[in-house]
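Below is the record:
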Amino acid sequence: MEATPSGPVRKWSVTLLDWLIWRPLTWCTRQVYRLTRWLLSPQTWFRFFRWLRFSSISLRRWLLIALLVMLILPGIVAGIFAIGVTVLDPYQEPESVQMVRSDVNRWLDPAWQQQLTTQAARDQTEAVLYEGDKVIFQTSHDPLPPALENGTLLSIAPEGTNRSAVVTTTGQIHGDRYWPVLVSYFIALGLTFAGIALFFGRSVVKPLAATSDAASDVAGGNLDISLPSSRVREVRELNAAFEGMAVELKESLEHEAKLEDERKQFISAIVHDLRTPLFALRGSFEAIETGVANTPEKRTYYFQLARERADALDRLITDLFEFTRLEYLAQEPERAPLEFGELVKRVAGALQPRAAEQGSTILLDIRADPCEISADSHMLTRAIDNLIDNAIRYSGPNSTIWIEVLSTSESFIWSVSDDGPGIPAEDLPNVFTPLFRGESSRNRKTGGAGLGLTIARNIFLAHGGTLTARNRTPHGAMFIGSLPCSHR
């Protein structure tokens, strides 16, 4: 007696079959169902078309999408039409075939045979009726071919009788229902091609044509251009780059024109400021030479006037040289460790006698920790001297100039303020502009050539600091500067 497989062995084989076949098959079926449901979801197609509308895709991907749309969309439309024709206009057998199937008992009736012949002619069919192997009637006298090139050959054998029939059709009854499917395919293909052509015309051809016209405008000097947007990434980036180039070129030309105007104004102002002390020098020397200064007192006066004009000319040339070095030659400071508070104290002490000449007082408040900065002492001396000298000159007689120096963990902060009339509000934004003077006479007794504040600000910027100006309350001007401390 043979042994049969035990229970555990059979259970193991069923488990193996379950894991190797049924579980993977179930999982694949579930995933295919989920994928099909996702593809047929209207929300999926809505998101897809929204992505196509608002996304910027490369030209290569757009061409791939266009190719897929041309291949798939007309087929989908034709398929929908085919389904509609099949559902709405189902195939029905010709009436002559129905007569043969339903009227078996009347096959020998001459009247019925005449009706069948007439109906077969309408249906474009031919029928041969048999009783056993004997032909009892046929609608046409021509023999039936064994096989048809077009149409179908139907064999009818009613149950419970020895009669049979053979009916042939030309194929028109089957095929004429589906001509709208072919027409719909070519219509959908044409509309798809027109839509793709319209899309690429708007997204590629039109923007590129606009770019070509804009290039002609730029070549003609018109830099105010506006290019249409595009959903094609390369075209969009090209138009954005071209617009950016036009904007930068326009800004560059405007900046160049502005610099040219400033250069002309600069040269005109310098010529004026150089000519004024030269005329004064020549007038003093002519007065001495022609004998106008015929007394020792007059000669002393004209010599003193000539010395003042020579000093003014020397100061102007020094300012021009310093401004040129900082503004155009971009000279870097020669840095060395120094104590900023001591430097401010030394410069203020040197200007104290000049302030005393007009009855003004310089008050120092230096609360800086012993923090060194790495800076050019000569350049900073020039900047601080310009700011304090500016405060003495514009604050008027019997005024007070306050100088404060504070320090933080990262920088020195210092200020120069006075109790004079202050800076007019309309002049405040321009106090650091080269050659700008608040008063329009350019009288050197009240001010220089308008380069001192510009030089001071450029020196602070060259050291990585800042210099700003504002008015005090209730009156007076204040200049606030900062310099970074050197890290030890």
Remarks:
- The longest helix spans residues 233-289.
- The mean pLDDT is 79.
- The radius of gyration is 52 Å.
- The longest strand covers residues 400-407.
